[in-house]
């Protein structure tokens, strides 16, 4: 039987200058049994950071003649096992600051060796009391195996993470197998940045746990995974109205179907619930079956909204190509198996904003809206955030800027390809894809990506896996009036003595926000000089929107010699003997209007007036209605 010790007054703050001694003893033979002590809640005040103010000590034997084996003074998970028949706990607080104290569980469990062996030895037996066990890998072994078995064949195994391992997925993974062989289908795979879980339920009384390092792996052999292993009955008095309840907390719960059975051996429906239904929505992933992998075409379970008996649609997890069911209302979920095989499921909770519901946003022509997806604190594991951005006026389109820096620990693996973004040209994911970083994480590395829709709606989807998450996604969006914007590529315009005109998108109306137009002006006759006349200009006086002329054929990022700049209402005239590059940019402030420029050539040795306008040969830049979506990637700038 598992019993507990609590600090004085727990959960209230313990008093100053408290001192308590607890003696735990057993008459059972130490060759077969050990005293197991584990922290559950632990909060002592150690304001001097020296473990000499408030602390808890563990002695093998009594305090007078025993050995001090541990001194606790901070919030931490800890398990201690003693082969002695007596263990003494000594708690002391000083006269100053105090904490909430502690809860410690203790019990007697069977002794088991957990030494790393490439082939599992005798099984670790799990009795009535939960077993806390530390599992460590070895750099000298190609793998480690541990067989684990319930004392009672009718009681099935449960695994909980008590202390997580920090070993990277690149170096090693822990595999959980249902049954007594590692040749069976893996039930679950875990490493420090892959698949956190709160509990794994099995339908077997036997399991195999393996530690499998990668070739050339480097890790701390003292970095262990501590599991709390217990058992449960598989039989449940269920009916059509009395389902087995399974609570899903912050970290996922992994369980099989059937989860429990009635007295006749028939599978019972399972109802998933969460402690915070107002803010956390449920998600169910099909991980596989006892016969192998699951695919998006697999029809293995039915998921129903409990009270309304409404079926939840199956979706496809694009990163893993497995079925996923997302809750879209505040209610519990009923899970019913449709397969004659064991079906392994992962149930998790995600914030409402990233549960798969559509978050609607509006884009305006006169302001750049900036926000984090879903918040500045980042995004959760297993998120599916959907943002529908709609231009506020009919005929307008949406321009979206994205910056995203993933965590340095985020490394894509075949079993978890990583977090990704998809952008659709329309209101749903049946629309054409404008941009995708799936399997292409480098497409967002240290870049600003600009995506432009061809219609008033654009759908942004952020999908994250079960591993460590990255930083928040930064987005900035606005509407482009009439669908007009600068072309994505530099335009080459050949000039002669007849004048041509280049006009800003939407001219004479307001120049759209965040535009970059690049024109290369070339004289057809190399003996002529190029003339640029600003005919009309109506931009902000702050000069965050500019017309800049450069010498020669340059790009927006190359070294350049400036010939002149135009902003506000200036109307200068420029002449140059060689090619000219004209760069037109706009900022985040809406301009009153736009600009119109006359360009032509004249003889280098003559002084001429402005030539006759050409009405039959418009500049290629006159028509700026671009029917195709454009993606511009830049290596500099911040949203």
From TrEMBL:
Which keywords does the record carry? Answer: Disulfide bond, Repeat
Name the Gene3D superfamilies on file.
Spermadhesin, CUB domain
Query: Is Disulfide bond one of the keywords?
Result: yes
Top-rank taxon of the source lineage equals Eukaryota
Q: Which SUPFAM superfamilies match?
A: Spermadhesin, CUB domain (SSF49854)
The segment(s) forming the CUB domain are 1-109, 354-480, 486-590
Which Pfam families does the record match to this protein? Answer: CUB
Do you know which InterPro entries this protein is assigned to? CUB_dom, Sperma_CUB_dom_sf
> Does the record carry Nucleus as a key word?
no
Q: What is this protein called?
A: CUB domain-containing protein
